[in-house]
Every structure is written in structure tokens, then in C-alpha cells.
Sequence to fold (174 residues):
Amino acid sequence: MPARPQTMQSKPLATSLAWIGLGANLGDSTATLAWALEQLHQQAHVQVQRASSLYRSAPVDATGPDYINAVAELSTTLAPQALLECLQGLELAAGRQRPYRNAPRTLDLDIVWFGEQQIATPSLTVPHPRWHERAFVLHPLAELLPERISASQLQAVQTQRIERLPQRWTAWAV
Ligand code: ADP
Ligand code: MG
Fold:
């Protein structure tokens, strides 16, 4: 039997853990974040493993209403760029517009870390370049991965107003 052409050989897809930051400050932000997690979990190649508590934070370098934020841990067989495109599709579906930089938004989904990968392409920088400067990323990340966030990193953002909310997520797991 002839060998299968190289391109037909099936290759096991590696599963990566990725951490994404979710934020919203227009509309029903809490509902939008829950919707985003449900949508992500329903993607064929993405599973939402864990999510932090919900947080309320003051806008950084921007005006507008307070944000609702969280960080979620995903397992995925998608490549980083494909995950970014998936996140951007959800932002669009949630009515995201970009009238100017740091404008209020119905939904912002950022890749904070993608496994241990370091990526620098025109459309994607991973780890996210500002993850360690933002209380709204550090606090939820510290909840999920306490061993990876130090007290001094949290102290460095202590002037940024943020509070953990008592609300629970509506379930996203099937
Ligand atoms: P921001 O989240 O920085 O306020 P946007 O959500 O409007 O701004 O994203 C602007 C661009 O940032 C996107 O078009 C995307 O290509 C790029 N980008 C670079 N790295 C990342 C990342 N790690 N996660 C999400 N977007 C990223
Ligand atoms: Mg973004």
C-alpha cells in the first residue's frame, strides 16, 4: 500500500492551558461576561476549566463606568492566533466597537498567558504586555494561580481601585 501523503497524516493536537482576561463596562457587564464564558465553553476546541471571582474595577487610563473583570483558565487545542480570532469573534458578537483607544466596551477578551509561550507578532503579544500592571488582571490571576503572583506584584498595583464581588457565575459547564 502506498504511503499516505505527508499532508494527510494525522497529528495529535497538543492541548494548552491559556488564561484570558475578561472585561466589560457597557451594558449588563456581568451577564456579558457569563455569556462569553458559555460561548467559549461551547467552542469545539476550547474548555473553560476554571474562572476567578467577578471583580469591579475603576477604568485605567480611561474614563467611563467601572469595569466588571475576571480571568478564566481554558484548555484548548487551538493555536494562539486561532484563539485570538475566536475571542475577537465573541467581542464582535457582543457588540464591541472601537471608536477610540481605551473606549468603554461591551466586552474585552485578552490572552494573558498561553502556556509558557512567548509570542510577538503584529496582532498578538503573549504574555499580554500589560498584565502585571493591572490590578484587574493580577487579583483574579492570584485567585487561580496563587503561586505565580507575588505579594510585591499585588502591592505594586495597590493604588488601583478594585473589589471582589459576591456574585457567583451562572454555570457555564455543560
Ligand atoms: P486593549 O485590550 O489593549 O484595550 P483591544 O481589545 O482593542 O485593546 O485590542 C487591540 C489589539 O490588540 C487587537 O486587535 C489584538 O490584535 C491585539 N493584541 C495583541 N496582543 C493581544 C493579546 N495578548 N490579547 C488580545 N489582543 C491582543
Ligand atoms: Mg483587548
Observations:
- The mean pLDDT is 92.
- The domain at 16-164 is CATH 3.30.70.560 (Alpha-Beta Plaits).
